[in-house]
Amino acid sequence: MDRVIGLIDMDCFYAQVEQRERPELWDTPVAVVQHAREGAPGGIIAVSYEARKFGVKRGMMIPEAKTKCPELNVCFVPQGEHIDKADIQKYRDASAEVFDVLNAFDDRIIVERASVDEAFLDLTDLVDQKVIDVGPVVLLQNLTSGVSTELPTTHLADGTDKGNDEYDREENLRNWLSTSCSKEISHTMGELAMIPLEAIERRFESHAQWIHRLAKGIDDEPMDRRPVKGIVETIGY
Q1: Res. 193 pLDDT band, cuts 50 70 90
Q2: What is d(CA 103, CA 101) in angstroms, rounded to the nearest whole number?
Q3: Contact assessment for residue 95 and residue 20, using Cβ atoms and an 8 Å cutoff
Q4: CB atoms < 10 A from the CB of 230, how many?
Q5: One MF term in GO for this entry (predicted)?
């Protein structure tokens, strides 16, 4: 039996955390900004779907975003103990709540943390069952899920259709790799998949087998309930 791999992506995660903290912000345009050097506001790091409709994007500065969306609600990441550090603890806490729910579904589901707002789920042992009711507690309103038999194509399926949705592109995977994704990369994965393994081995040696299989959307690396071993914080200027 093929594996069944799912990907949970918490949409505009930082913005949703702010909306949950201040319920009056639900269904309103929200942007989250992290401080920059000397405490001055930096660029936008998260944008709610309501704000995206006005053309607000990550990386924009507040004045430009306000020009596009005058009603934009701007939330700031709390400043840490030191002026050059951000305090992202509340986002970590919100992430932990979601992962607690995912891990509580069923012991047969392997949950592998990919980032603060993403998780891979190995659903193979639970493919004939469906979890319907999580409970009355509102964690986050929007998330996107992708389903595939392989880790890389799960992420591709998830990325094609954002917005509190679920998506499965397995049936037309090879055609999509050869056509649609050409808009995102200079050469398609389909073209790479057509290159003989021997040619890839001449260039990449030990990694050739992995590259060749990945180009075909194949990655049978087993998933693991790996614990968090480290935390990294960065601030870009």
Answers
A1: confident
A2: 5
A3: no
A4: 4
A5: DNA-directed DNA polymerase activity
